[in-house]
Amino acid sequence: MDVIITGSTGMIGKGVLLECLDDNRIGRVLLINRNPIGMEHPKITEVLLRDFSAPDTIETDMTGYGAVFFCLGISAGGIPEEDYRRITYDYTIRFAETYRENNPQGSFIYVSGQGTDSSEKGRMMWARVKGKTENDLLKMGFEKAYMFRPGIIRPLRGIESRTPSYRTMYKIIKPLWPLLQRLMGSKLTDTTRIGKAMINVVIDGSDKVHFENPEINALAG
Q: Which residues is 3 bridged to in the sheet?
């Protein structure tokens, strides 16, 4: 299967990319990023999209891919709701619409987050916006659409978060990962298992559409 990955310069997207490169079930990998990833591999083609509000400008590049792993995202901390909604909801929906128009049999996997509010009525702004994004993606008519809601994520294979506060947090808790794994079990996941789970579900399918850490780990095998 040929796939598109957005947000591959981020922690989750990079993890998904590395697993796609290692998996012989995945053929071409089209990276759509705002900034170059600085990686070369026979599977990789990279297209820069500086403005994610206008994905139609690269729609011909998106044709012929069986799935999108949409990992583009931003932390809600300190950002106005209007900006967060534009990046989280508007960019995602416009991208999904453009992709589906050019790949009507394609599948869409969206990285949301633990605590996302499907009712769209909760107290937390980010959870409402993510919930609406998920709901509207599921209404779009994709052959397969899955919402990944990871919680605590351990970065592996040298991956680091691009968010400074998260990088600091990960450095502090790095020695504690083995203990956290024993205490939390399947409630803790990592970048490798998220990547494997996305590949497995888009190839094998699932009756579920929402996946939190325990389900992600089970999918990863």
A: 29, 67
Q: Which stretches of the chain are DSSP H helices?
A: 11-22, 59-62, 81-85, 91-102, 125-138, 164-173, 177-184, 191-204, 213-220
Residues in the chain, overall count: 221
Give the span between the Cα atoms of 73 and 138, in whole angstroms. 18
DSSP, collapsed to helix, strand or coil, labels residue 182 as helix
Q: Which of 221, 202, 207, 209 is nearest to 3 (CA)?
A: 202
Decide if 126 contacts 164 (C-beta within 8 A).
no
Give residue-wise pLDDT tens across range 140-162.
999 999 999 999 999 999 998 87
Could you tell me which of 24, 205, 214, 191 has the C-alpha nearest to residue 111? 191
Fold entry, domain 3-220: Rossmann fold (3.40.50)
For 208, residues 6+ apart whose C-beta sits below 8 A from its C-beta are: 146, 215
pTM of the model: 0.94
Give per-residue pLDDT as tens, 152-203.
Answer: 999 999 998 877 777 787 788 888 888 888 888 889 999 999 999 999 999 9
Instruction: Give the C-alpha distances (Å, rounded to integers) separating 157 from 11, 30, 86, 173, 192.
Output: 11, 21, 32, 17, 8
One-letter amino acid at 194 equals I
